[in-house]
Amino acid sequence: MKTATLKALLAARAAKTPAALVTEIDGGAQTLLCDRAPPGEVAIGAALQAEVDAARSADRSGTAEIDGKQYFIQIFNPPRRLILVGAVHIAQSLAPMAALAGYAVTVVDPRGAFATELRFPGVSLSTEWPDDALTALDIDRRTAVVTLTHDPKLDDPALHVALGAYPFYIGALGSRKTHGKRLDRLRAAGFDDATLARIHAPVGLDIGAVSPAEIAISVLAELTRELHGPKTGGKE
Question: Mean of the pLDDT values across residues 131-154?
Answer without folding.
Answer: 94
